[in-house]
Amino acid sequence: MENKEKAMVVRQNPGISRDAIKYIAMLTMFINHAANALVPAESPWFEVLTDIGYFTAVTMCFFLVEGYQYTHSRKNYALRLLIFALISQVPYVMALQFGMLNMLFTLFFCFLILHVRHRVSNGFARNLLVVLLVFVTLFCDWSLLAAIYTILFDRAAGDKRKQAVSFGIAALLFGLLNWMSYALQMAPLPALGHAVLSCIGIGVSGIVVLNFYNGKKGKRSGRFSKWFFYIFYPAHLFVLWLIRLGLGV
């Protein structure tokens, strides 16, 4: 009887699928990018909207690790990341005015880091290649941080306690770097407040993934969801670029 009741609870509380969390991540990314493209940096809304978007990168790094483990073809996975990274680069630069490689390039290099960690048996060669790939991410969006997040989640794979620690380290590291940046513009205490607020997105990601993610891809997941996540990235950047052109900003 007790087992039946437990099963009923599981059916009634199915949690959130991977695809659903990714859709949330796409939304928060769009909010962040819209702020960077269209909202003046001096506006109080700029910080609020960009902070919301910090949910996305750490979430995508977590699912990149999962994707590497469960994908049917790692070669095709890597090729999709690279192809859409190339497609996205011009819209990325024009929409956001960032002079670096876009986030899909970052995820591509993080995917290579995972591949090296899992497939290169020689310890020296493995560590050297990982360091080189981490260095390459310095020229990408979420430079260095995304690579560190990916390594943390890879080391913590399958262990919720370690995953929670990894999310905590991710938030602390991001907060520390932001505090150092804000401290150049204001007094240390207000800078600390801004840095703490910037960590909320990462904290929320950890709460959602660790407490509500049901470990499933999604009931209606298929080719649409698979390709939507790739197509949305260059498409939303292209739209923001057109809006900037229309507004003359």
UniProtKB/TrEMBL annotation:
Alphabetic keyword roster: Membrane, Transmembrane, Transmembrane helix
Give a single Pfam family match.
TraX
**Tagged with keyword Kinase:** no
Q: Which organism is it from?
A: Candidatus Eisenbergiella intestinigallinarum
Q: What is this protein called?
A: Conjugal transfer protein TraX
Transport keyword on record: no
The record lists the membrane-crossing segments as 20-40, 52-71, 92-116, 128-152, 164-185, 191-215, 227-247
